[in-house]
Design brief:
The structure is a single chain. The protein is of the alpha/beta class. The protein contains twelve helices and nine strands. Helix 2 links the parallel strand 2 and strand 3. The longest helix is centred in the middle third of the chain and has 29 residues.
């Protein structure tokens, strides 16, 4: 095992070889094809119960989580992966102290984590409280966050839409580049943040809290536009879920008349901020239009003492003053 760990160090380009993957998914679409690629490349797979059954039915060899932890799934499946043999394998860094601890405990590192979450967004939001609680993923979220935190050594896949891209990378390099690992980590943290935002909304709705002290919104890119507020700026169109305390524009939804990914036309954007959706500093005229188009906050969200002006503007029904008609 010790020699195998030494052979796993990144190459000169920072590509970390993938020799062992942990797979635990609710949505099985595309799984067999992706797992078949892993098997062809000689990557060992460790899987939870339902995922292991699906892979075995496809003739793919897997190791069960239970065989590593020494414990079966307990509490009606609430606890399956929460064990040092699993999280130690994911969180260990490529440094002598960590690797020697793994060797001493007989734990082999995991290089790739493939997880998608219980479908709270599609099933939990309309369920009773008791039913919804069973659709809140704990182990899956923890696996994604652990792998994303240790992106320097571990690649994390949180969506079936990523399978093909990661499979192509593995076929080409037998590993995952640092650039892809970093982006996959960002995607994983975005996924868990969005997941938690919906769960938070469910609890607020169940408690009849319309305006919580902290409102978390989850936006998803709808369309890449060709330019922003001005032709030299970049922008993108984002969309929101409209349920559970998350709001969106109901009337006068901005759209590109040409349908070809045109300009800004009232989309949510950030300007003059390093991580923004739109880059560049808008002109004074653009800033004036911004007050009419996107405003500076969501309904019911107020800034406290010392809070900075929020860089995000929110698309919504606006009057001439730039204030929401909904107060």
């Amino acid at each position: 095992m010790e020699q195998a760990m030494m052979n796993k160090m990144p190459d000169a380009a920072g590509v970390v070889p993938v020799r062992r993957a942990l797979v635990s998914v609710w949505e099985k679409a595309g799984l067999q094809t992706f797992a078949a690629t892993l098997a062809e490349l000689g990557i060992e797979m460790v899987a939870t119960g339902g995922t292991a059954d699906t892979l075995r039915q496809s003739g793919i060899s897997v190791t069960t989580i239970e065989s590593l932890t020494g414990y079966p799934a307990i509490l009606d499946g609430r606890v399956k992966t929460l064990h040092p043999a699993i999280f130690g394998a994911i969180l260990a860094r490529d440094e002598p102290a960590h690797q020697s601890q793994l060797v001493g405990m007989g734990i082999a590192p995991v290089d790739l984590v493939v997880v998608n979450l219980y479908p709270f967004e599609s099933r939990g939001v309309d369920a009773s409280m008791a039913e919804a609680m069973e659709l809140i993923d704990i182990g899956g979220v923890s696996l994604l966050r652990a792998a994303a935190k240790n992106w320097a050594r571990v690649a994390v896949v949180c969506d079936p839409g990523q399978y093909e891209r990661v499979a192509d990378e593995l076929r080409r390099t037998r590993g995952v580049s640092p650039e892809m690992r970093r982006q996959l980590a960002a995607d994983a943290f975005a996924r868990t943040a969005a997941y938690d935002a919906v769960i938070t909304g469910y609890f607020n709705a169940s408690a009849n809290v319309r305006f919580p002290d902290r409102l978390t919104l989850s936006w998803r890119k709808v369309q890449q536009t060709r330019y922003g507020e001005n032709p030299h700026q970049a922008a993108t169109r984002l969309g929101l879920r409209s349920r559970l305390g998350v709001w969106r524009r109901r009337r006068g939804q901005p759209s590109s008349r040409r349908g070809d990914g045109g300009g800004h036309r009232g989309y949510l954007y950030r300007s003059g901020h390093r991580a923004g959706v739109q880059s560049g500093s808008p002109s004074s005229a653009a800033k004036e239009r911004e007050s009419q188009v996107v405003g500076s906050g969501a309904p019911g969200v107020q800034r406290g003492p010392g809070d900075q002006e929020p860089p995000w503007g929110f698309v919504g029904p606006r009057g001439r003053s730039g204030r929401s008609r909904h107060g």
